[in-house]
Amino acid sequence: MGNCIDKGEILTSDECTRSTMTTYFTYPDEALQQELRRIANAITAKGKGILAADESVSTMGKRLADIGVENTDELRRKYRQLLFTTDKSVSEYISGVILFHETVYQKSDDGTSFIDLIKQKGIIPGIKVDKGVVPLMGSEGESSTQGLDDLSQRCAQYKKDGCDFAKWRCVLKIGKNTPSYQSMLENANVLARYASICQMNGLVPIVEPEVLPDGEHDLDRAQKVTETVLAFVYKALNDHHVFLEGTLLKPNMVTAGQSCSKKFTPDEVAKATVVALSRTMPAAVPGVTFLSGGQSEEEASMHLDAINKCVAAKKPWALTFSYGRALQASVLRAWGGKDENVKAGQEELMKRAKANSSASQGTYEWGSCKGHAGDAGLFIKDHAY
Question: Which UniProt keywords apply (predicted)?
């Protein structure tokens, strides 16, 4: 093979071959690999999961409205302070906390930054970096997620300010014609680009392709859609040369639609979920941090426990939780916006965190954790934030 020219320079045959090979790329340097691997493994340590406290100002407003509390900067700060000043033993069950931008820069009453409060407990701070869903033109009400333009600069700043991981949510809907090829391809590529940018800046990306529970579909349809969506996601992550050992997946559990007439048992949900993951998720990924997807607190714990007990397929990853509503519903009700109820709210967080820690190890006794929210459903139609 002779020489070839690239940008005016004469290349040797080896250089020419490499410059045209589609499989020629470089892995992250060893130091970055070790850093990303360390963070991902710490987040998915045995018996631990994530507290998702990344509600936007508007979403936090809805949570506060449910308990009759005004949505002010100070009340949002006080509520997050309640979460982050819970007894240090909460770190036995919680490995990471996902924050919203506002919360990263807030402080407790004594002037300690929330980031420092979290780190003092041995818990890893993370940050939600997407800027919300936007309509996908030409689709049947589908969406993509925005926020890539300035993501690298923001990730660099968040890393500097103490965050070690990030989260980005994409949303897919099950309908007669959805999710469409257009939607699955677009959202998979957005997630892959986000993951790549995070890793460039030393943040572990949590990849969240949420298949919404809205609809009348049964468990079989939910499983098939989840498998297809995850196949698109991991193809895109591969295309973007994302270092899988330094990522985590935050998927939906495979559940039937909220309006499905047939009800499925936790064991049936577990089997569908575990099989779907086994068919699509590489063993290199350290762990799965499930979203609760509008399940009640107890449902989310029971399903996670059943998933960890399930032997329908091999499970080479940690299977744990990244819950928002399913960790906080009882906390909010116990607190009610009153300073004198802070301790009661913290006790609810400890109870539910411990229950989910047990569930992530397949040792939870169903129904043993009674909270202020009871078995209240936490489903929100077309959930956005």
Answer: Glycolysis, Lyase, Schiff base
Neighbours of 236 (CB within 10 A): 24
pLDDT digits (tens, 9 = 90+) for 113-126: 999 999 999 999 99
The answer to whether 208 is a known catalytic residue is: yes
**Catalytic pick among 128, 250, 271, 351:** 250
Question: What's 185-234 look like in SS3?
Answer: HHHHHHHHHHHHHHHHCCCEEEEEEEECCCCCCCHHHHHHHHHHHHHHHH
The whole-angstrom separation of Cα 96 and Cα 204 is 12
Helix (H, G, I), strand (E, B) or coil at 161: coil
Structure-block tokens of residue 94: 């919680």
Angstrom CA distances, 48 to 37, 42, 90, 139, stand at 16, 9, 10, 39
Nearest to 172 by CA among 161, 159, 188, 156: 188
Q: Which long-range contacts (CB under 8 A, 24 or more apart) does 2-5 make?
A: none
335, 342 contact by CB (below 8 A): yes
Decide: 93 and 134 in contact? Cβ < 8 Å. no
Residue of 178, 223, 215, 179 whose CA lies nearest to 313: 223
Q: Which of 35, 55, 186, 208 is catalytic?
A: 208
Binning pLDDT at 50, 70 and 90, where does residue 5 land? low
Residue 143, both tokens: 């969406």
Rounded to 5 degrees, φ, ψ at 299 are -60, -45
Dihedral angle at the C-alpha atoms of 156, 157, 163, 165, nearest 10 degrees? -30
Task: Encode 127-142: b = buried (16+ Cβ within 10 Å), e = exposed.
Answer: bbbbbebeebeebeeb
Cα 71 from chain centroid (whole Å): 25
pLDDT tops 80 at residue 258: yes
N- to C-terminal Cα distance for the chain?
A: 56
Whether the bond into 179 is cis, omega within 30 of 0: yes
